[in-house]
Amino acid sequence: MYKFFLKKAINIYHLVLAVLAGFYYRFPSRKLIVIGITGTNGKTTTTHLISHIIDGGHISSATFKIGKGEIINKMKMTMPGRFKLQKLLGQMLDAGCKYAVIETTSEGLAQHRAWGIDFKMAVFTNLSPEHLESHGSFENYKKAKAILFKKLDRNKSDSVSIVNLDDKHADFFLKFKAQKKYGYGLNKFQNKQYQNTLFKKVIAQDLQLDQSGAEFKIDNINFKINLLGEFNVYNALAAICVGLSLGMNLVDISRALKTFKGVPGRIEFVQKQPFAVIVDYAHTPEALEKLYQTIKPTIAVLGACGGGRDKAKRPILGKIAAQYSDLVIITNEDPYDEDPREIINQVASGAINSAEKCRVLKILDRKLGIKKALSMARPGDVVIITGKGCEPWLCAARGKKIPWDDRKIIRQELQSLNL
Predict the structure, then answer these.
(1) How confident is the model at residue 196 (pLDDT cuts 50, 70, 90)?
(2) Distance of alpha carbon 416 from its chain centroid, rounded?
(3) Residue 69: which pLDDT band, with cuts at 50, 70 and 90?
(4) For residue 189, how many other CB atoms are within 10 A of its CB?
(5) What pLDDT score was predicted for residue 181?
(6) Which of 180, 249, 291, 390 minimizes the number of CB atoms within 10 Å of its CB?
(7) Residues 145 and 279 in one domain
(8) Using CA atoms, how far apart are residues 257 and 225, in angstroms rounded to an integer?
(9) Is residue 321 part of a domain?
(10) 8 A C-beta contact, residue 224 and residue 258
């Protein structure tokens, strides 16, 4: 009974803060076209792609874009708190932005951070288990994601929902009301059950993937993106749907996509020769496996988040790394209040149990782990360092935040090793 009332009290607390923030900043979203992106993976890249195509402001786990300026998100939060969120939207309005693209998280939605924000569009990327400790179950996690789509009901006259048809949870998100609906996917995966539906379908055809990016066609219009992997094609398709829903034509959208240079910390090459060194944010099993399938690593450096976050995935991450790499280095990530050695051991258990030809090392100090990987790399190798991307902090016990940037550490160690 105590836990029930405590949960209710916390929920009311979050809601009250959201209401106060909305009134304090006078609901700037009412004068913007706000687009929310939700899902497990791909949210950040999709947010940036949309912002680039429509020349809008954005709020993502990587950066904040206000007008023409863009700054690194140093908050260690994908979706900021209510006052910060409303303030950013107000700044976009003052800067003359017409559009605001927000990367929305399940926890942010569940904690009412989106209260008072008038979303005109909701985009669903994909769904796989994450944050289950926080939500209690996968079903609760899915329902939290759906809050974004439920908010569209208040704007039926101009609301748009955009759903990945190739995700097995597509039907769940398609059921929510919207004035216009778009579905996207790849031709080879297109589900026959959607062939006779009335909503607009955007399907990539003649897909070609290589180490420079991807090419595909939509209605005989050629598209080229400078992003690696099939998963990024899905992100681009979601962005194309947004452009179409706003009245853009495919030719103009295609031109815009060609000039997109990527997102900080998402398959970011720090070095390409004599061996490649790549930084990526991937921290879920699905995202990690898709990354490794796209860019087969020789050496994988990874860890897992602490603070009670998704403990079940830790050995799975290690297992995946061992299946795709010749050398796996398990190191510290963001331990928060947990023993980092225990987290590393849990990740390593999956790697060791799966390692046949793969060597597994446990190095507590992340900087030393990165240095070891670089020192062992040979010409032609691929070193992939995952989990943090461009995050500017390493979060330790008692709220301590250590200044950090995997990319900066890599450059320093490459220089010290004369590589």
Answers:
(1) low
(2) 32
(3) confident
(4) 14
(5) 95
(6) 249
(7) no
(8) 6
(9) yes
(10) yes
Residue 308 pLDDT class (50, 70, 90 cuts): confident
Name which of 88-97, 228-237, 265-274, 350-359 the model is least confident about: 350-359
Let me know whether 245 and 274 are in one domain.
no
Q: Report the candidate in 334, 266, 273 with the shortest Cα–Cα distance to residue 42.
A: 266
Q: Are strands 160-164 and 119-124 parallel, antiparallel or unpaired?
A: parallel
Residue 263 inside a domain? The answer is no
Q: Which residue, 171, 178, 126, is CA-closest to 151?
A: 178
Do 291 and 329 lie in one domain? The reply is yes
In the chain, the amino acid numbered 127 is L
Give me the pLDDT at residue 190, please.
60
pLDDT top residue among 328 and 9: 328
Task: Dig out the tokens for 15 from the structure.
Answer: 């809601």
CB 381 within 8 A of CB 300: no
Tell me the HSE value of 156 on the side-chain side, using a 13 A CA sphere.
3
Does the N-terminal peptide bond of residue 274 adopt cis geometry, omega within 30 degrees of 0? yes
In DSSP terms, which residues pair with 331 in a beta bridge?
Answer: 363
pLDDT for position 114: 93
232 and 322 together in one domain:
no
Which of 240, 258, 276 terminates a domain? The answer is 258
At how many degrees (to 10) do helices 366-376 and 406-416 cross? 50
Tokens standing for 330? 């398990």
In the chain, what is the greatest distance between 2 CA atoms, to the nearest angstrom?
A: 62
Query: Which of 136-145, 194-203, 338-347 is predicted with the least confidence, judged by mean pLDDT?
Result: 194-203
159 Cα distance to chain centroid: 23
Question: How far apart are alpha carbons 34 and 79 in whole angstroms?
Answer: 14
153 torsion bin: left (phi>0), alpha (psi -120 to 50), beta (else) = alpha
